[in-house]
Amino acid sequence: MLDKYSKLIDFEVFAQDEKMGEIHDIYFQDNNWKVKYAVVESGDWLLGERFIVATEALHKPNWEEKQITTDISKEDIKSRPEIDFAKPVSREKLSELHQHYQWSQFMPSGAQIYGPYPIVSPTADIAQRKELREETEEGEANLRSAEEVTGYEVECEDDCIGSVKDFFVDEKDWVIRYLLVDIGRWITGKEVIVSPDWVSEIEWLEGEIEVDLTKKQIENSPEYNPAEPVTREYETDLYDFYHQPGYWL
User: Fold this and answer.
1) Sequence ranges of the chain with CATH classification 3.90.50.10
2) Per-residue pLDDT tens digits for 170-196
3) 181 near 161, Cβ under 8 Å?
4) Euclidean distance between CA atoms 135 and 34, whole angstroms
5) What CATH topology corresponds to 151-241?
6) Fewer beta carbons within 10 angstroms: which end of the chain, N or C?
7) For residue 192, which of 227, 151, 162, 153 has the smallest C-alpha distance?
8) Are 133 and 205 in contact (CB under 8 A)?
9) Top-tier CATH class for 6-145
10) 94 pLDDT more than 60
11) Tens digits of per-residue pLDDT, 192-234?
């Protein structure tokens, strides 16, 4: 099932019938758009502190109740290695978290366990983003905040078309399948769906995403209706229109 990232925000997270907090953000891997972690904001029991939960430890979301369960306990969270969400988080710290919770080893494809800043938080300043770009080796994967990437400018081959408004997340594989792009500055009130597979380049420092599509293609693409779910039929029409093989094939 595909649904919007924005709908995951404020999802209640439960473990053993106890509420742990609410989802505040998600972190995805920037080389394949896989969602690796949910950022959870605790309630009064932890004085509103935030912690991360690997998606491998999350069960299937209940979209009607806006709830999701996890295998970790409050005691696990209380004794966790601390993270400063105001700063980029090192791979060493993530490795400690995986060992603490007994999650599978943190090893994104193309990356080392240890290295500079795998997570770029929404509060990271320009200097930190620049340091990340300069120190990260070519092909190395990093983790990005969906909250941070929301609002990035989207440019096609011949023009700037709009900005990222939301993401469509595949709950089965925990991967971002589409970017929802607001092109209201060009066509009033219109939104379009773009697959990350069609992204040619991302300028993380400048907050820009370039796609291998033309303005005319996007204008004539199958219309997205925000009142209806994204079905496989719609996806097939979309991929056929762009002459691209579907990710499900």
Assistant:
1) 151-241
2) 999 999 999 999 998 888 888 999 999
3) yes
4) 22
5) Photosynthetic Reaction Center; Chain H, domain 2 (3.90.50)
6) C
7) 162
8) yes
9) mainly beta
10) yes
11) 999 999 999 999 888 999 999 999 999 899 999 999 999 999 9
Coil vs helix vs strand at 208 = strand
**Amino acid in position 72:** I
- Spatial neighbors of 220 by CB under 8 A, at least 6 apart, are 241
Bridge pairing between strands 208-211 and 153-155: parallel
In sequence order, the 6+-apart residues with CB closer than 8 A to the CB of 207 are 151, 152, 153
Q: Which of 55, 202, 237 is nearest to 120 (CA)?
A: 202
Q: At residue 125, does pLDDT exceed 70? A: no
Instruction: In whole angstroms, give the CA distance from residue 138 to residue 141.
Output: 9
Q: Which of 203, 218, 133, 169 minimizes the C-alpha distance to 33?
A: 169
* Stated pTM of the model: 0.87
